[in-house]
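Final report, closing paragraph on structural work. Over the funding period we assembled a curated collection of sequence-structure pairs, and we close with a single example.
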Amino acid sequence: MNRFLVILLLFTGVLLSSCITNRDLVYLQDKGDINAEDLILNQLPDLYRVQVNDILSINVKALDEELVDIFNPIEGTSSGSGGLYFSGFTVDMHGNIEFPILGKLNVLGYTIPEIKDKVERELLKQYFKETAEIFVTVKLSGLKYTTIGEIGTGVHVLQQDRVNIIEAIANAGDINETGDRKDVLIIRQYPDGQQIHHINLTDIKAMQSPYYFIKPNDIILVKPLKRKALGVGQTAIQNITTISSILSVLVSTYFLTKNL
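Its predicted structure, as stored:
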């Protein structure tokens, strides 16, 4: 009987210790090993470099509006990323876009400001005079990213140039209670392939991470906590219910085998 009680107590302790606590759930906790007030909270992300299949919105303005009609989509057709799929400029497999009059322009690996300068230079060289006073705006069709795992799964588009991972997760519906916030994976595309990065969102130091700001085409993957894989409850009440059920079965089994 003593051995049975020891095993039962150990099993009970494991279940109770597997509860999900605030330390597992609360974002950006000040753990005391850094002065939160000293964090650079408004750090700027690195400029994004355009990749294959990105869609660009390019708009040309000049003193004579009739001269630029050929370059610009019909008003109202480019609102939202869905409209830009048809009226925007898609980067093909060779890194080119097909631009009116100018033909193919290679933009692969360029930043948005660099593309703007390139389009302006080519327009002045091939079509406009300096006196036309042209003005070019270039934007991505939105910041697209994917979420998968213990989070709202799907492909999301935010009409912003700058999005941090907390905003991205909130837009996706937040991480489930059974998701591992301490080791969130960011799968990022680079010219030479994909790389996996890790970030601990329960620590305020995450705001200093180079991966705190997401980039277009990022995949945010949230793994389940180990306790979910074990099938235990998320709260103490759930675990106590589980313990009570198991205890009832074990005690009944013990006395039945003892009386045989």
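The chain is about 30% helix and 20% strand. The longest strand covers residues 55-61. We thank the funder for supporting this effort.
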